[in-house]
Amino acid sequence: MFKKVLIANRGEIALRIIRACREMGVQSVAVHSTADANSMAVRLADESVCIGPPPGRESYLNIPAILSAAALTNADAIHPGYGFLSENAQFARMVEEHGFAFIGPTPEHIEQMGDKVRAKQTVMALGLPVVPGSEGGVDNAKDGLQIASDMGFPVIIKAASGGGGKGMQVVESADEFGESFDRARSEALANFGDDTVYIEKFLKNPKHIEIQVFGDTHGNAIHLGERDCSVQRRHQKLVEEAPSPVITQALRDEIGELSAKTIRDMGYRGAGTIEFLYEHGKFYFMEMNTRIQVEHPVTEMITGLDLIAEQIKVAAGEELTFKDSLRSRGHSIEIRINAEDPDTFIPSPGKITQFHSPGGLGVRFDSAIYQGYSIPPYYDSMIGKLIVHGRDRDECIRRLQRAIRETVIVGVKTTLPLHQWILEQPEFVSGEYTIKWLEEALKKR
After folding, report:
1. How many CB atoms lie within 10 A of CB 316?
2. Cis status of the peptide bond prior to 243, with omega within 30 of 0
3. 234 assigned to active site
4. What pTM, to 2 d.p., does this model score?
5. 4-103: what fold?
6. Model confidence at 164, in pLDDT bands (50, 70, 90)?
7. Dihedral angle over CA of 225, 227, 228, 230, nearest 10
8. Which of 151, 180, 258, 396 lies at a C-alpha separation of 20 to 30 Å from 200?
9. Does domain 132-201 have CATH number 3.30.1490.20?
10. What is the average pLDDT score of the chain?
11. pLDDT in tens, 304-343
12. What pLDDT sits at residue 133?
């Protein structure tokens, strides 16, 4: 087992990793920008190193500074968390070349799954169902229009190196195709440095279902069930729950075991999430995230497994704690709390003047905020996650409503009122919501 782990991240995920290390008897090193000098991660880690000024590119994306901090503190391994460098194959490769263990997949698997075209080709060859579409990247609008016409509109144009909704264009007709194709390529180049795009059949009203998978270096691979992440705004997840309220146990077992087989055949190491669109009883592979997810706590709540500790163990060469996939117990829902105006979604950085976290049976609050903490304006607006667990979904919803009422965050605006409203909507209560539901509901609000 490692003696010391450096955490190349910030905020609640850095604190989450520090807590796992502490429980495992592993020392932790927090790196931070000057804006995060007073963060909870810096306060609770065994050591901390400042790696640069506030802009992410000069600190949390500064690979030489992070590697220097690891060398300076004699760390054994580096955990990237999520976001920032977590899916950067070059970073993972440099970590290993400099003699540190990377707590994540191999650089080769990060590259393979990071390219959406290669990822689709890979999993299709291994038996996962995929959305009908182009076989690879499409070089020009003329070829793309032919592919789209053969497939039938609507279609969606996607950036091969993309994510988070950037470089995506839905096209309803042939007349719109040329302009949308050029716009998608421009966005892809601007956001990812790669203008490669591909085309898929557009599913009109699907759910977003993802399967948590885990593999080790001993040939073991498991799945830990699914998460329903369909409550989204502009392709950004706001609410996640497990298990999905619309997936049967038989279908859950089928897609779960197929996902586990896929990463077993790949020889995949560590945590990963295989994301699907689900419509009319069928799954279609969308992408694979080669890292821990923001929403991993809901899986922890229904399985009792510490996914961060499992990541660290696997990276240290140990076998998975469980060799067989686990059945879930009860139900769990997570809401992402953002420092934003709940009506306009404009970011609301600033000083937290009053703070009280909720408690009680089955309530978990993952956050790095505290009373007197100043939320910096330089990073993502998510400041915490409220996760609850119940015997069933109805109890879980009631518990989450109660926990939201108990949460006090004064000094900045947050999305807590929006979440309370979401939980009261008939579409959410029924579980029949899809990825389009929230944006359509907000227009009528």
Report:
1. 17
2. yes
3. no
4. 0.91
5. Rossmann fold (3.40.50)
6. low
7. -140
8. 258
9. yes
10. 96
11. 999 999 999 999 999 999 988 888 899 999 999 999 999 9
12. 86
- pLDDT recorded at residue 109: 98
With CA atoms as reference, report the closest residue to 31 among 94, 90, 73, 92: 73
Distance separating alpha carbons of residues 244 and 393, to the nearest angstrom: 10
d(CA 103, CA 28): 13
Cis (ω within 30 of 0) for the bond into 154?
yes
Report the b/e string of 224-255 with b at 16+ CB within 10 A: bbbbbbbbbeeeebbbbbbbbbbbeeebbeeb
Tell me the CATH number for domain 207-444.
3.30.470.20
Strand 236-242's sheet: what is its strand order? 282-289, 270-279, 207-215, 221-233, 236-242, 331-338, 382-390, 363-367
* Least confident range of 155-169, 232-246, 369-383: 155-169
Per-residue pLDDT reduced to its tens digit, 67-81: 999 999 999 999 999
- Among residues 16, 185, 252, 291, which one is catalytic? 291
Side chain identity, residue 126: L
Instruction: Please tell me the least confidently modeled range out of 88-92, 151-155, 353-357.
Output: 151-155
Q: Which of 148-162, 244-258, 354-368 has the lowest mean pLDDT?
A: 148-162
8 A C-beta contact, residue 134 and residue 147: yes
Delimiting residues of CATH 3.30.470.20 domain(s) in the chain: 207-444
Which residues of the chain does CATH 3.30.1490.20 include? 132-201
Question: CB–CB of 188/165 below 8 Å?
Answer: no
Q: In the chain, which segments carry CATH 3.40.50.20?
A: 4-103
- In degrees, rounded to 5, the angle at the alpha carbon of residue 42 between the alpha carbons of residues 38 and 45 is 155
